């Protein structure tokens, strides 16, 4: 499904009702990875010509994700880009703090209230406000003394799955456990986005 096509995915609401809590366990992890990859690859912070469609594509799925999960996604994929641009703007020789303040307030208004209320998201806004206040205090020394933003959180959300390198054998390594038929079937189902549900019936 193309994330940019919106959330009108045929039958999704019915599947959510049918699967109940299993829906979150089955769909949400895949959805979060897709949304994170979408933000990472298509969204940039650009004060002079801001395109927010990629962010709107992600926020449109908020009914299928809890505010906490969506907030963590934005902390990982949106805020590192946002803080980097804020820093560049503040250290620019002709920085206009009125424009920066308006830009800050506008970005907060883009996020729904329930998302801004998530502690992790609120902490990022506070961090940005602290950076602006520090820049004001530094005055003419802002270009040299304002510390750059620290690295954001680890980004396992958007990372593609890779096969880890095999560790060299050692005397302490436990012998590999032979996979059962059930293990093979479960792995195949996972690769094909299928849910394996045992019937728990004795069958010839």
Automatic annotation (TrEMBL):
Coiled coil, from the record: none
UniProt cross-references to Pfam families, sorted A to Z: GCFC
InterPro entries per UniProt: GCFC_dom (IPR022783), TFP11/STIP/Ntr1 (IPR045211)
Domain (GCF C-terminal) ranges: 1-86
Name of the molecule in the record: GCF C-terminal domain-containing protein
Highest taxon of source: Eukaryota
Species assigned in the record: Cryomyces antarcticus
Residue span of region Disordered: 147-173
Top-level taxonomy: Eukaryota, Fungi, Dikarya, Ascomycota, Pezizomycotina
Compositional bias of kind Low complexity: 152-173
Membrane-spanning parts: none
């Amino acid at each position: 499904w193309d994330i940019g096509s919106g959330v009108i995915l045929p039958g999704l609401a019915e599947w959510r009702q049918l699967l109940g809590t299993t829906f979150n366990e089955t769909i949400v992890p895949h959805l979060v990875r897709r949304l994170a990859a979408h933000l990472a690859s298509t969204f940039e912070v650009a004060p002079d010509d801001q395109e927010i469609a990629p962010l709107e594509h992600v926020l449109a799925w908020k009914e299928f994700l809890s505010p906490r999960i969506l907030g963590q996604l934005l902390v990982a994929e949106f805020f590192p880009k946002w803080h980097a641009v804020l820093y560049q703007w503040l250290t620019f020789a002709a920085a206009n703090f009125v424009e920066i303040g308006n830009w800050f307030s506008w970005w907060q208004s883009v996020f729904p209230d329930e998302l801004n209320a998530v502690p992790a998201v609120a902490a990022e806004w506070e961090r940005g406000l602290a950076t602006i206040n520090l820049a004001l205090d530094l005055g003419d020394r802002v270009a040299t003394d304002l510390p750059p933003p620290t690295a954001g959180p680890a980004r396992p959300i958007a990372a593609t799955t890779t096969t880890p390198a095999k560790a060299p054998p050692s005397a302490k390594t436990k012998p590999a456990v032979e996979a059962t038929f059930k293990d093979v079937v479960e792995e195949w189902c996972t690769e094909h986005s299928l849910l394996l549900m045992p019937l728990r019936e004795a069958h010839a």
